[in-house]
Design goal:
The protein has 511 residues and is an all-alpha fold. The protein has a single domain, classed as Amino acid/polyamine transporter I. Helices cover 73% and strands 1% of the residues. It has 21 helices and 2 strands. A two-stranded antiparallel ribbon has the order 1-2. It starts with 18 loop residues before the first helix and ends in an 8-residue tail after the last helix.
Length: 511
Amino acid sequence: MPLQGRPEQMPKPLKKISLISAIAITAPSMMGSGWLFSAQLNAKLAGNYAFLAWITAAVIVILVGICLAQVVEIYPVRGAVTRSSALSHNNIFGMPFAFANWFGILVSVPTEAQATTQYLAAATKSAVLMEHNTLTVTGKLFALCILGIYLVINYYGIKLLAKVNNIVVTYKIFTLIFTIIVFLIAKFDTSNFTLISNVNYGIGSVFATVVGGGLIYSFNGFQLPATFASEINNPKRNVSFAMLISIIIVLLLYMSLQLAFMGAVPHSIVATTGWGGLNFHSPLLNLSILLGLNFVSMLLIADSIISPSSTGYSYLGGSARMFYAMAISGQMPKWTISKLHPKYYLCRRSMIINVLIAAVILWESDSWASLMIVVSGYNIIGYMAAPISMGAIKAKTRIFGAAVFALIGLIMSTLAIHALLMINLSVMVLLGIYGTISLLNKQVTLKQLISLNMPVIVYLWSLYINQNPIYAVIVSTIFYFFVTYPKYVGFCQNLSNLETDKHGDSNQEIV
């Protein structure tokens, strides 16, 4: 039987946030830099199939959300997203999924700071912040200052985060809806949707666009209610509601924006180059300037600060809680965490460490697009944990979980081969470090370590070796049924119980 979930112990009664506040944090987090860039990327990669691509991405995250909600129903704990496979199996098996979940959210933080800097560079038409499609040293320093603002907003707990977010969400939604309406009224050319070049796109482009067009990236953040589960009223109900309602709201807005953007692009441009030839550096801003919509341009410049920033500080709060959860589960060194703050109920040391890592990533990257694909890859691996944990905890859900997992594997196979290589290598390096430490501390034997990590390693590399869609579905299904097989799950849990007998409760909440 799986470990019994229990709410976290709290240093003092915590005033939790409502379903409305949870939606207000989640939905805007999916309207960060993605909406500023994805409409163009989606049109370039999918043409008229862009709308089906949005629906496909939404269906994927909804299915993952259903799996995650099943896990949170039993384990309504802090950082449930990263801890799910550790709780259903054990810490070592869950390590690659926890790392991918945490790192995917964390890398999104500097990505949002970069998006703000990139849009401001386009607005000022200056090479001070960005030159040759790359952030300058000044641009990176400016983005680091934005990270500092994210830290301040999170430093005083979720109540301040919710208050700030409730204020900016109104402006974010207003700007998005206003931009859509103005584009539709000012210029909507239906001939853009009957281009001859549209025959170059097909159903296959839909799946490639889910990752390459930034759609998974745009929807990422839907799992924030599960991350904040222990800080939300009635998490067994409100976590799933917050995820579902947020995804539907954002889907409708993104599809409307896609329609408005594709209809507003001057026909002379797309008739000459096709959708694949679009090359706006700051798509919505460049288009509004091209159409002479100066008042929209001003709103977009302001929103280029607000939208990515609200996503950035929400993701920083989520990544800090995930990191804390990994340390609680023994997947990160214990020194990386401290007692939860008695008033604000957060681990500030974990948050500071996350900010420092984000700063290093920001400094080493060049632009929004350079990070988005890699972030999406980590997100997809992180999503795999939800159906696996659900199937292990609730055996009756394995058929549904296998279908969800196969779909995730199919999307994973569309990643660029270089990106998939970098992701697999980074996961291997992390597992190597973690495994070496575990062996030196005699927490696990080499045989046990191999039996726990080898299935995941073989699966990820098998997707790299052969990216055929049918192959990806078959391999994903076989892997899923193996790791959720009751005897394998029991084997993992027995090792976890032995470790608990030696060193105490490895899943004990530290407060």
